[in-house]
Amino acid sequence: MKKVIITTGGTGGHIYPALSVAKELRKKGVEILFVGSSMRMEMDMVPKEGFRYIGLKIFPFNSISNIIKGMKSIYKAIKIVRKEKPDAIIGFGNYISFPIVFSGILLRKKVYLQEQNANIGLVNKIFYRFVKKTFLAFEKTYEDVPIKYQDKFKVTGNPLREEIYNIDSLQEKEKLGIKKEKVILVTGGSLGAKSINEGFLKNWDKLLEEKNIKIYWATGKKNYDEIMSNLEGRSKKHIIKPYFENIINIMSASDLVICRAGALTISELIELNKPSILIPFNSVKVGQYENAVVLKEIAGSIMYNNNEIDEAIEEAIELLKNNNKLDKMKLKMRLLKHSNAAVDIVESLDIWGKK
Question: Is the entire prediction scored with pTM above 0.85?
Fold first, then answer.
């Protein structure tokens, strides 16, 4: 039986793509071992999906103390790789993947990387020269790569939840009871987005005047009670929740999405062919601006910053009245569409022939 070690963690943006690839490998009868942090969300998420999991105490290398601790995690990672004898190792970014990826390279294993964002993250940037292949979400990432290394990269798109590839927009509208109304999905992710929430609160009465618009607003858990208190029963026909468990279905039914620009969100918009207004989180570390530029450059999305929420809402209202422009944005989005990334990545691994 083939065996693959997958290493990632820290945030859902790293973990969900890893799980998608792991499930595809499992279909092929491959034994999977996940290695991540013993202190972050992956230690609960991964075992729930039925995968074997080893947690290490891994810290960012941002202090002498953490570097010393990091040496201990690398020593343990080397022992894991030696014991498990994997046919391949796949790292999905974040400092949590460092010990196993480094150990795999040191022990001459077949190591692969996957980059979710438009710009290469620090750990992947350190290691891409030494691995067999790095799988990219976006063509734009090649701008970060010296020409002599570009043959070590392959654009596959981001691995997404399997159900997204079989979803139908019209069927989802029917399930939600949407008839003639135009649907806006507003989301800042599971934690919410303060600037987006405040902008919608400020402009709520203006939005209520638009009779042919229905809003699905995911406020985030922290903000929900305060927002509902401020609206004082003025939500009317609109649906406001902390988070939508069926957010992919609502996104599919939407005519326009207003959101942040996390890597997986961008990839979901591409796969579902959805026009959007993107308001990227304004931290250089997160890389959302570069992700948003991917869609802005092909005119599949309109981008605003955190100080322009009022303008973004005005644009959204006008956009929903302009079917021609929405249709053009949908056509542009198709330029970025890929096949099932998890399948593509699994088939690209050099483990299927004779050892």
Answer: yes
